[in-house]
Structure formats: structure tokens, C-alpha cells
Amino acid sequence: MHDVVIVGAGPVGLFLACELGLAGCSVLVLERSPEGRSPWKADPLGMRGLSAASVEAFYRRGMLHPLLTASGVHDDPGADPDTDEPSPPRGVSHFAGMMLDPAQVDVTALPFRLPGPAMDGVMTNLEAVETVLSERASKLGVEVRRGVTVSALAQDGDSVVVQARGHEYAARWVVGCDGGRSAVRGLAGFEFVGTEPQFTGYVVLATVADPEKLRPGFNLTPKGMYLRTPAEEYIGMLEFDGGAFDRSQRPTREHLQAVLRRVSGTDVTLTDVHLASSFTDRAMQTTTYRQGRVLLAGDSAHIHSPLGAQGLNLGLADAMNLGWKLAATVHGHAPDGLLDTYTHERRPIGAGVLDWTRAQAAAMKPDPHAQALQEVLRDLLGTRDGTTYVFKRTSGSSNRYDLGSEHPLVGRNAPDLRLEDGTRLGDLMQDGRGVALDFSIARSLRGSAMGWESRIRYVAGPARNDLGLEAVLVRPDGAVVWADDRAPDREAFEQAASLWFGSPQL
After folding, report:
1. CA distance 298 to 321
2. Burial class (CB in 10 A: 0-12, 13-18, 19+), 322
3. Tens of pLDDT along 117-171?
4. Pick from 390, 361, 490: which is nearest to 436 by CA?
5. Helix (H, G, I), strand (E, B) or coil at 314
6. pLDDT at residue 220 above 80?
7. Cα angle: 467, vertex 469, 474; to 5 degrees
8. At what angle are helices 11-22 and 126-139 packed, to 10 degrees?
9. Between these two residues, 87 and 39, which has the higher pLDDT value?
10. I need a surface site. Which of 43, 434, 443, 447 has the fewest CB within 10 A?
11. What is the number of alpha carbons within 13 Å of residue 233 lying toward its C-beta?
12. Which positions ≥6 away from 453 have C-beta within 8 Å?
């Protein structure tokens, strides 16, 4: 029996497998696709943008440089590592197809932003992400079995049995990371609720006879939207047909050409279609992320349109949040209720992303009301405050878990604090433990922290930029669970450590 069976070997399932493997859990990953490689995962169709929070997750597990190399990025996305002055982000993306200027971001308004190797997002592709994660998972002893389609699932109070192709796989826990049409979600009886689609979207790799008829970039039109990228054969488009296209069918060249002509208002011609797929803005979410010993992460728990490119980032954050909590539960030292905090923390974040994509769909709708709204939005998004607001939402810097503390840093992703010797918080998190940073002259927390030595790394010393903090306790996923601006309160620290990391060792 494995500790955990993960269904789905995409980025979310593999990242979760790495987290569990790092914590010493026995992990089996079942993937229905027989092959890991696919043209849908390589550029340009597999192109994805990783947010600053996702890049930081790779950085904190020692996988940033392999990711950059696999992505063809030759420099770190962050600022000069020798400066302590935050710099503006390199990119902000768009809202509803309306592009934003990163120079407009007000850096002073970003909460607790410090420079580091993982300040900004990175353009990559699914193939690069999965390659890096697969290699790390293998080194950690994770087994991945491909060509395995899950057909049944049964659980009791102690274990879960997954059936696939006549074989049974038993585990103490099962996590569904098998995408928007998740078999695990259906088999385990999760309730899936939300809103129906407004549009059908298409991603197309095609030969265009007259590409000059299509303007580059995002183009909102009276009939929808189309996107033409520097890779001339790659085209994206949206048609507000209420999601009427039958997505069980592959779109034909004739259909795709007709849609492109309607939304672009041109007589452009597609001479050949190499690859094509469709999607909608159907936005659905499970009412809980856990049913007994079955959990969900990524698109298995929530689906939405790709507007804003937040789906992959949302799923990776699910995996980062769940991994250490499930590992602590497996090893028997999780405090009461720890695993339930996964739903409590991640479901509101997912709901916010669904609303973010709904808002963009509403603003893009080709009717007079939405077109009037677009004009208002363009004015707002052209301001410093508007651009900063969008960056906060899309980068993850505005996310904050409600952890019951009034301290403004608690519940937020920890900044990359750096000690005088140059060691960064990100360097200290690579083994998957929590981190207690003690900047106090008296090293007040040294004795208390020893009670959690196997779960919390204690590091003391002055910081180059301590943000006015005397001490901070960070979970393995990067969330700050306790912080003190004065002489550290040992009792408060011990309460926080017990709440998140269980009883101290005797």
C-alpha cells in the first residue's frame, strides 16, 4: 500500500508528488496518457505564463534554474540579487485582452515586496515544466505509471482502492489531479457547481494564406476576439455563441475559417489546419476539496476559461498548499484539523480566480453594454492604480489566507528575506521544512524552536532588510503563520508552531 496515489501526471500532480516525495512519503502517480510528450505541451500550443508566486515555488524547492534552462530562459526573472531595492515587474499581461504597461505598477503599493531570484513571472511551456518535475520526482523515488485509466474508486476509514484496467491500487490517500474532466471527482461524488459558458474559444495551429489581414496581439472586435502571436501559425479566437460548438468533435478547417472571418471582420483564409482544440468559459468548482480520504487539486477541483492564464498557477499553488499538510497527516504529526485547512484556504482563492475570468468574459462580450464597459476599463487600466491592482491579482501578491492574526504579514506569502551573510529565505526552504527566522539580538526563540527541529529549520542572525520584523515563522508552502515586530514572544511562537506543526518533540 502506498501512502498516496495521485491520479494525473500533469504539472499539478507531479508538483504534488515532488512535495510528498520530499517529505518521505511513498507515492504512485497514475496517468491515462501513454506518452508524456505531445505537441500540445511544446511551444507554441503549450506556452504558459508562470506567475511570480509559481516561479517562487520552484525557487524554494531548488528547481528554478532547471526550469529556466528547460524553458530557454537565460537569466533569472528577478532583480539584481545584490540589491535590496525592489524593482518594477517585467510584465503584467492583460485584462480582457486589454494590454497593460508594467512600468505603471506602483512598487511601493505591493505588500512586503523584496527583490530576489523569483520576483517576476516566466514564460515557459508545459513540456519544460513537466520535464523538470518528472526528473525531480524520479530522484525522490516517486513511481509514475502511464497508460493507466482509472475506472472505479472505493474508500473506507483507513484506505482508498483505485481500480484501473483490471488492477487495484491501494493507498492511504488518493488525490485527483486529472484535469477538468476528472474521473476521480466523479467517482468520489464531489459536487461541482458554477456557471455555464458565454463563448467558445479556439486554439489553432494553421497555415494562413494572408496573415497580413490579421493584426498582431489581442484584438477585441464587434464579434468577439482574436489573438495573433509572433508565431504566425498560432491563432486564438473567441466567439460568443453560448458555448454552442460541440466540443466532442474536432473543429474542421471550414468551421475555424468561418469563425475567424466572423470575429476578425476579414476574408482571411486558412489553407491548412495542423492542430486545433476548443474550450469555453464554463466556470465550475467543487464545494469541498476533500471527501474522506480523497482530495482534489488543480483543474479537478475548479475549471474556468484561460483568460488571464491563471489555471496552471492556481493548480500549482493548490499542490504547494496541500503537499506538506498531507505529508504531515501521513506521518502522524499533523495537528487536528490541518488537512481541512486545505479547502478552507484554497477554495476562496479558486473562487476568486473563477470570478476574475467571469469578469473578463463579461467585459469582452460583443454587445453595446460590454463595449461601453471596455471604454471605462481602458481608462481605469491605464492608470497607475488600475495596473497595480491587476498585477496584484494576477501575480498572487494580493492573496492572503485568513489565519486569525491582525499582523499584516500573517497569511501572506513570505518575502525573500535575506540574512547578512547573503542566505535567503528561499535557500532555507529547499528541504520542505518550515523556517523560523530570528533577527533578535538575544536569539530569543532558539530554545523554543528546538522542540520542532525535524519540522522547522531555525535560523538566527541579523538581516539586510528585516522589514521591521524581529522574528517570523513560515510554513513549508511559504505562508507566514506568525510574525513579531518586537522582542519575540516565545509563548506566542510556541502556540503558532503547535497549531501548524503539531506537538513539540520530547
Report:
1. 11
2. buried
3. 876 788 889 999 999 999 999 999 999 999 999 999 999 989 999 999 889 999 9
4. 490
5. helix
6. yes
7. 100
8. 20
9. 39
10. 447
11. 12
12. 505
CA distance 334 to 59: 25
Residues in contact with 162: Cβ distance below 8 Å, sequence separation at least 6, in sequence order: 5, 7, 30, 150, 152, 153, 168, 169, 170, 171, 174
**Separation CA 295–CA 86 (nearest Å):** 38
What nine digits make up the cell of 137?
Answer: 520526482
φ, ψ (nearest 5 deg) of residue 238 = -125, 135
C-alpha cell at 356: 476574475
Report the alpha-carbon distance of residue 124 to residue 120 in Å, rounded: 13
Taking alpha carbons only, the member of 77, 287, 282, 54 closest to residue 180 is 282
On whether the CB atoms of residues 52 and 356 are closer than 8 A, the answer is no
* Beta carbons of 477 and 316 less than 8 angstroms apart: no
Please state, in angstroms and rounded to a whole number, the distance separating the CA atoms of residues 199 and 305. 9
- Other CB atoms within a 10 A radius of the CB of residue 212 amount to 9
Map grid coordinates 511570480 to a residue.
Answer: 52
CB 63 within 8 A of CB 36: no
Tell me if residue 338 falls in helix, strand or coil. Answer: coil
- The three grid cell numbers given for residue 326, joined into one nine-digit string: 498531507
Is pTM, for the whole model, over 0.85?
Answer: yes
- Listed in sequence order, the residues at least 6 apart from 473 whose beta carbon sits closer than 8 Å to its beta carbon are 434, 435, 436, 456, 480, 481, 482, 483, 493, 496, 497, 500
pLDDT in tens, 475-505: 999 999 999 998 888 999 999 999 999 999 8
Give the type of residue at 319.
A
- Measured between alpha carbons, how far is 101 from 344 in angstroms, rounded to an integer? 34
- C-alpha span between 111 and 13 (Å, rounded): 30
Q: Which three cell numbers stand for residue 252?
A: 474542421
Mean pLDDT of 344-364: 94
| Cell numbers 530554545: residue | 447
Q: What is the 3-state secondary structure (H, E, C) of 29-87?
A: EEECCCCCCCCCCCCCCCEEEECHHHHHHHHHCCCHHHHHHHCCCCCCCCCCCCCCCCC
